[in-house]
Specification:
heterodimer, A: alpha+beta, 7-stranded mixed β-barrel, 6-stranded antiparallel β-sheet, 20 strands, 28% strand, B: 234 residues, alpha+beta, 13 strands
């Protein structure tokens, strides 16, 4: 059914779900929600399966007119939410009825927020996902971000609409200084002394940070002597930290498939949620961990999500 | 000189990836190993492996760390490296791409011809006589990196890229030739265009080719082009 009419689209609002896997060999990027925890919780709060499509908001969210009733939740970045001018809590579901105006304003901290609706955003699945591939111009809302006048549909609610709230202890805090856990490589052996610098120095997020990659500023990371400054193109993976010839690292994200520069280390999957919420000017440090520690972190992340799942079901 | 590694090199990529390198250059014999191993892994489908992505001289395995047995996966790789032969791999599929060369579809074909002291007909003949291996795909959805452009056609890129080049454009840039599945900015010398929709996300088979296939370009007339795209006809 028709659920929202877009009155104001927000700065970059796209339909996302868990992304497209299995197609990177054809040049199809994964796409999908950048902050997986906030995205998953949003769906749980409105009684959706975790992979249901939501709206990913970037900094400033949309103003939406409800065209029918629905259960809504907003999670992620610290945006202010109002229904007909009445403030709503984040991380808690609330009902809207036909004619209500839902307004999601600028985030005070963090970057990306998720607007979930009971039943899930209903757009056609393209190659197995409802995520928007901006580069390929397909998926989500016709392969683009929302514009004024768009009508967003939702699927029928499969579970009864119950108001749910995430306990405070599980809500993430968005800090200006962050440490990202990384596993060295795949091209860590290209850096020699550069590795030491990479694990010691603070880097700053620049304004050139988006779903394709986060460019960092900071000390130049030197290559080992005699090493070429590009590699033969190989697949990219979200979290891989690429060092181009200028020595300024880029954290690759989800909208690309291959790259031709050396990757000094790779951010572990749980910490990608931190990257997704990092703002220009924020400080980032990289902390070196082993693969075993990375697997443990992954287990912890899944356990937390499982605990939340049990609490909200 | 391209070196084919006796033992492939494995490199972890964070907590969900492994890159396996087979050599140190862009070369057919190295890429053949990539293809053979990709197909072998596709057949075996080890538990916890989400996908296998072949590129020029390496492949990346993406896995789910909570489902995969990493030691087991590495063991399987070792076994496959020992067991599987290039001879086990079926010959590449040949995919023919019709191209209308020159004219309004190939504005740079004369430049390419002049650069090499050839006629436009020579360029068409040489380009369409060669077979091109798809080494990998990426950069944009459905974009194929092709190997095998005859040296005599290697032409530098445009100094100033065009802001927009139509989907289906076929071009040359240095030692590469390729096809643009989507309208995009391009610095390539455009020598022709195909009426085929190279990438259609809503089609049952969104792609017309994949890594490992061989591409052959087949010249068609402007009339044939218009007929195939349904332009200006009854």
């Amino acid at each position: 059914m028709d659920m929202f009419r877009v009155l104001r689209p927000g700065s970059l609002t796209t339909v996302q779900d868990l992304g497209r896997y299995g197609l990177q060999r054809y040049g199809i990027p994964v796409s999908g929600a950048l902050d997986r925890f906030s995205f998953a919780v949003g769906n749980l709060l409105v009684g959706n399966p975790e992979g249901a499509a939501s709206l990913e908001v970037t900094y400033t969210g949309p103003k939406l007119e409800a065209l029918s009733e629905g259960l809504v939740a907003v999670t992620g970045a610290d945006v202010s939410v109002a229904v007909n001018g009445e403030p709503q809590h984040l991380w808690e579901s609330f009902p809207v009825k036909k004619g209500d105006v839902l307004s999601v304003r600028t985030a005070r901290s963090g970057v990306r927020a998720y607007v979930s609706v009971g039943g899930g955003i209903d757009v056609p699945e393209v190659m197995g996902s409802r995520s928007t591939c901006l580069r390929g111009r397909f998926g989500g809302m016709m392969g683009r971000s929302l514009v004024r006048g768009d009508i967003m549909r939702r699927a029928p609610q499969t579970k009864p609409g119950v108001i749910r709230s995430l306990p405070a202890s599980f809500k993430p805090t968005f800090r200006k200084k962050n440490t990202l856990r990384v596993v060295p490589g795949p091209q860590d052996d290209w850096f020699d002394k550069g590795l030491e610098l990479f694990f010691r120095a603070p880097f700053t997020v620049t304004a050139d940070a988006d779903r394709t990659g986060y460019r960092l500023n900071g000390p130049t990371v030197p290559f080992a002597e005699g090493v070429p400054q590009s590699i033969i193109s190989e697949p990219s993976l979200a979290g891989a930290v690429q060092v181009p010839p200028d020595g300024k690292p880029i954290i690759l994200m989800v909208e690309l498939t291959v790259g031709g520069y050396a990757k000094i280390a790779t951010v572990i999957t749980p910490d990608l949620d931190i990257v997704a919420q990092a703002r220009p000017g924020d400080t980032i440090r990289f902390s070196r961990i082993t693969l075993d520690e990375a697997f443990l972190a992954h287990l912890e992340y899944r356990d937390t999500l499982q605990t939340v799942r049990l609490m909200l079901t | 000189m391209a070196v084919l590694y006796e033992k492939p090199i494995r490199r972890p990529v964070g907590d969900t990836g492994v890159i396996v390198e087979f050599g140190d250059a862009i070369a057919q014999e190295i890429n053949q190993k990539v293809r053979t191993m990709t197909l072998a892994l596709d057949r075996e489908r080890p538990a916890g492996v989400r996908e296998v992505i072949p590129t020029y001289r390496s492949l990346m395995i993406v896995y789910d760390p909570l489902e995969v047995d990493l030691d087991g996966l590495m063991g399987l790789l070792t076994e496959l490296e020992r067991r599987v032969d290039d001879a086990d791999t079926p010959p590449p599929r040949v995919v023919e791409i019709p191209v209308c060369y020159g004219g309004e579809y190939g504005p740079d074909i004369e430049f390419v011809a002049q650069t090499h002291g050839l006629t436009v007909d020579d360029v068409i003949r040489i380009h369409s006589e060669a077979s091109y291996q798809i080494y990998m795909m990426g950069f944009t959805p459905g974009f194929a990196y092709l190997g095998g452009l005859p040296t005599v056609l290697h032409t530098p890129r445009l100094e100033t890229p065009r802001a927009l080049v139509p989907a289906g454009s076929i071009g040359i840039a240095n030692e590469q030739t390729g096809m643009y599945p989507l309208e995009s900015p391009a610095g390539w010398r455009i020598i022709g265009r195909t009426p085929l929709k190279l990438f259609d996300p809503c089609r049952r088979n969104p792609f017309l080719y994949e890594s490992g296939d061989m591409i052959r370009f087949v010249g068609i007339s402007a009339e044939e082009f218009r007929r195939m795209t349904g332009e200006g006809g009854l």
